[in-house]
Design goal:
alpha/beta; Rossmann fold; Elongation Factor Tu (Ef-tu), domain 3; 4 domains; 16 helices
């Protein structure tokens, strides 16, 4: 095979990115050095330099760890401090290795190396067994989206190549790994010092019938997940001449072609890609992670931090995020202290509103905590002063991650992995060239207008939005008011939370994003009832102010009345005939408002109804009086 043919074959070979992890002195650097040496992937001058450095240090033989430990401090202390990246290839596959440190002090460096990996090689010292750092690194690797791991039980020579010692470690770590998100878990007994089961299978362990580490890396599955959707965060607007406008950035995920329709976010405008310019000139196609300049067919107001995406698969637009946070600063997390949130090309001021729990890396148990310290992991609620375009991390690593920056020291304080949003604002209305996201849709209207409907029903249509905790009395008040209105000859309808979730919204759960979608649908239905001339009475917890604000926008400011049905939490629990609060406090109902999920009371409601002090009849009287003041009834 000619040199050109070899190069072409290597160019076409698929790439596996993997990281090493484990506790300090487990032998990660020695294992990678052995892998490079025995697979003939180390250059002669590198081997000569390692042999010379080994001799200077007085070590017998060649210290293969020096192939990756390049820092002076690493060689002096014989530990890995920074992430070292190495490339090598075999006839079947190319590899990029991130050799990461094992010491607890450098867990943040390990997280950095694992953030782009497809597979983790987790080392465990056969003489030490499974330790906390082995579990912590496995947990972090799974959080970072790595779904397959090879557990290399190293230093088998020090336990006499004992099958019993290997099986004990395998059973313990497999039991731990059942609580995390690894899909493929392979255990391999190795001795990095002598090369057993690293590149070639070892005759010293005839009881092991599996592959060597390199054989496993060559055959590990790739591309099991669907590729993420197209995301292009704009980094810079290029205007070298008056007749050229291009938008520069790195494609975060997916691919794009000339002629593709794209949505400009958050503006919600539709346009098409006219040209794609890359380092090698003009192209008709580009994909992640290429750095390109895109030219669009329309002149739009685009700036840094905006994003281009395919209109059929839009990201979230959210002020508040739910995230797993890996804390990286020696200064502990301080709730409600200002931080900078860096996500793609966006930089926004924000704060951590709440720490839901801290994760114990030994047991994976969720523990109560009021802060996070160096290398600790927790679930947080983050609020930004302006919304960010993002996805869930499990769907898109690039747009689903962010870092927190200390605004004083400018140190990276934490790395966040987005798991959800508190109340998403999806850019639902996309417009451009007369199109919407749903295609060529044109709003239709009949011959009967609002004035004719109002004259027929003798009322102005409106929506009374009852919000409050479960048990505050919203449904009781809604149906009592309905009875009063019907008795007076008014046309009305009640939308109750339990009833709607049994039909229209039965596909929704109770996550923050599902709650937001629930309220959005109710607002749209209420608007339709109002357009028919009816008075709509809604009885929903609707815990988030942002959701209620959006409902007001959908229905219309002149038709929306917000009524806060107010009752203390203990009173709501006392009234609870369904036992929901008791089940929520027992942990049987997750995301229950008032117990395990927040409720944001209205700041300036149109009506404040104290249901702890007033009877339903008295509260109906207050609402009736307010409706009269608003001139809802045309014959009074």
């Amino acid at each position: 095979m000619s040199e050109r043919e070899v190069m072409d074959r290597l160019q076409r070979a698929e790439i596996l990115r993997f990281t090493t992890a484990g506790s300090v002195d487990d032998g990660k650097s020695t294992l990678i050095g052995r892998l490079l040496h025995d697979s003939k992937a180390a250059y002669e001058d590198q081997i000569a330099a390692v042999r010379e450095a080994s001799e200077r240090s007085g070590q017998a033989g060649m210290d293969l760890a020096l192939l990756t430990d390049g820092l002076k401090a690493e060689r002096e202390q014989r530990i890995t401090i920074d992430v070292a990246y190495r490339h090598f290839s075999t006839p079947t596959r190319r590899f990029i290795i991130a050799d990461t440190p094992g010491h607890e002090q450098y867990t943040r460096n390990m997280a950095t190396g694992a953030s782009t990996a497809d597979l983790a090689v987790i080392l465990i010292d056969a003489t030490q067994g499974v330790v906390t750092q082995s579990k912590r690194h496995g947990f972090i690797a799974s959080l970072l989206g790595i779904r397959q791991a090879a557990i290399a039980v190293n230093k088998m020579d020090l336990v006499g190549y004992s099958q019993a010692a290997f099986e004990t470690i395998r059973e313990e770590y497999a039991a731990f790994a059942r609580g995390i998100a690894f899909r493929h878990l392979t255990f391999i007994p190795v001795c990095a010092l002598h090369g057993d089961n690293v590149v070639r299978r070892s005759p010293r362990m005839p009881w092991y019938g599996g592959p060597s580490l390199l054989e496993h890396l060559e055959t590990a599955p790739l591309g099991t997940d669907a590729p993420p959707e197209f995301r292009f965060p704009v980094q810079y607007v290029l205007r070298p001449t008056a007749d050229f406008r291009g938008y520069c950035g790195t494609i975060a995920s997916g691919e794009v072609r000339v002629g593709d329709e794209v949505a400009l976010l958050p503006a919600g405008r539709l346009t098409r890609v006219r040209r794609i310019l890359g380092p090698c000139g003009e192209s008709d196609h580009a994909f992640a992670p290429q750095s390109v300049t895109l030219c669009l067919e329309d002149d739009l107001d685009v700036s840094r931090g905006d994003m281009l995406a395919h209109p059929t698969a839009l990201p979230w637009l959210a002020h508040e995020l739910v995230a797993t946070l890996i804390w990286m600063d020696t200064e502990p997390l301080r709730l409600r202290r200002p931080y900078l949130v860096k996500q793609t090309t966006n930089l926004a001021r924000g704060e951590c509103l709440e720490l839901a729990c801290r994760v114990n890396p030994d047991t994976l148990a969720r523990e109560a905590a009021d802060t996070l310290r160096l290398n600790e992991i927790g679930q947080v609620w983050v609020r930004m002063l302006r919304p960010l375009l993002c996805d869930a991390y499990e769907q898109n690593r690039q747009t689903g991650s962010f870092i927190l920056i200390d605004p004083v020291s400018h140190f990276t304080a934490g790395a966040g992995l987005i798991t959800g949003v508190c109340h998403p604002q999806r850019p639902l209305r996309l417009v451009g060239n007369g199109l919407t996201a749903g295609g060529n849709l044109t709003p239709q209207s009949g011959q009967v207008g609002p004035a004719e409907r109002a004259a027929l029903l003798r009322q102005r249509p409106m929506t009374l939005w009852l919000t409050g905790l479960s048990g505050a009395g919203k449904s009781t008040l809604a149906y009592a008011l309905e009875q009063r209105l019907v008795a007076a000859g008014q046309a009305c309808v009640v939308l109750d939370g339990d009833n709607v979730r049994r039909g229209l919204n039965r596909d929704l759960g109770f996550s923050p994003q599902d709650r937001s979608e629930n309220i959005r649908r109710i607002a749209e239905v209420s608007r339709l009832f109002n357009e028919a001339g009816l008075i709509a009475i809604t009885a929903f917890i609707s815990p988030y102010r942002e959701d209620r604000r959006q409902a007001r926008e959908i229905i219309g400011e002149d038709r929306f009345l917000e009524a806060f049905v107010d009752a203390p939490l203990d009173e709501c629990e006392r009234r609870d005939s369904k036992g929901l609060y008791a089940r929520a406090r027992a942990g049987q109902i997750p995301e229950f408002t008032g117990i395990s999920a927040p409720y944001e009371p209205p700041e300036t409601p149109d009506l404040h109804l104290d249901s702890a002090r007033g009877s339903p009849e008295e509260l109906v009287g207050q609402v009736w009086k307010h409706l009269l003041q608003e001139d809802i009834f045309l014959y009074y």
